Amino acid sequence: MSNASERRVKIVEVGPRDGLQNEKLPVPLNAKVELINQLSRAGLRFIEAASFVSPKWVPQMAGSAEVMALIDV
Question: Can you give the pTM of this predicted structure?
Answer without folding.
Answer: 0.86
